[in-house]
Sequence to fold (467 residues):
Amino acid sequence: MADTYDVVIIGGGPGGYNCAIRAGQLGLKTACIEMNDTLGGTCLNVGCIPSKALLHASEYYAAAKNDFAAMGIKTGKVEVDLAQMMAQKADAVDGLTKGVAFLLKKNKVDHVHGKGRITGPGQVEVTAPDGSKQTLSAKNIVIATGSEPSTLPGIEIDEERVVSNTGALSLKAIPKKLVLIGAGVIGLEMGCVWSRLGSEVTVIEYLDRILPGTDNEIAKEAQRTFKKQGLTFKLGTKVTSVEKLKTKLKLTMEPAAGGDAETIDADIVIVAVGRRPYTEGLGLENVGGKTDRRGVIETTDHFKVAPGVWAIGDCIAGPMLAHKAEDDGAAVAELIAGKAGHVDYDLVPGVVYTNPEIATIGKTEEQLKEAGIKYKKGKFPFMANSRARTNHETAGFVKILAEEGTDRILGAHMIGVGVGEMIHEIAIAMEFGASSEDVARTCHAHPTLSEAVRQAAMGVEGWTMQM
Fold:
């Protein structure tokens, strides 16, 4: 039997590898188990990173095709080289996965290739790709197995014509007609990529709105903007079947509230109806661990599943976001090392990397109203921001919500170019319990897009100073 590890982590995604790196930095003997060929999990291999590579490239193409001429830039005919676009995406992923492997090695973490299963307290069995097995002994086991795409009954995903987010990142040709099932973050990002590249995109959503959980005013503005960009929306609609014909796909759908069915043709269908925890077959029952009906691991204390067993990231409650998993991982490593470890899930920013971007943190107006919390709001449009006007990127606005009486910032919601970077000013402000006046009285460089954040903060008390 090999020496006992201080920490054995099942899963090498953002939560798992950050937990491993932090544990290594703290001097803990650590092993990280990953069943896939490369580290990085869904985010790095078939999620956050490759999707941003395609979003960035497609934005360049759309700008060259639609916007350059108005700015006095002549390019001639602009064409898409999809093979090269996919190659640069793969190159970015390859470099980053190798970087993660380097960091594990640098921090003396053992990378174990295989699928991990808990067989009892302090015992993790690893099945290698060739079927061989080994058992690792651990004082602490951290479950960081992440999540996988959710599916719909009766719809078979083949990752060729009916695809999940994984297949949507690797299409071999630009589809003429693309249907997207689900108007959440993943779906809208993928819909925008292929729409920019020339696909006719129809978005079908069961709910009567896009971006569930997002501030309603932001969601409405986003839908208007995406509609102008060419996306078609069918809201309050459910897909009942996808028939695979020789040359096309035929979708049958009907109103979610009931009504007559209709059909629509497509070349490609992307199923993006959310994600579910990847927790089956982990052997949780062998240590008294439990999941709810969705597969979310129940934690009885801060990240604790059972004595010596911890869980982090997408497989526990909280936002299913890579950066939340990263913070979970670091916090658990610190708790295991006897330090303080904590993650405030109310202060996890969320970003949708469309164009314009959408960024949010804290409470929405709807949540504050439901909780009976009195608040004030300040709102500032990018149309009135000097840099946005200069850049011809005036879509969207910034909204800041502050508690009435105390002026403490309770939430911020933004839609506009670059707001995925701007949201962190408010994240830091909220972390330190700042008021809207604190942000309003902080000098911001002019002309910058970030001035819109300051102006929105000024607007909470009604002293906005720009247009």
In short: Residues 356-460 form a domain with the Enolase-like; domain 1 fold (CATH 3.30.390.30). DSSP finds 13 helices and 23 strands in the chain.
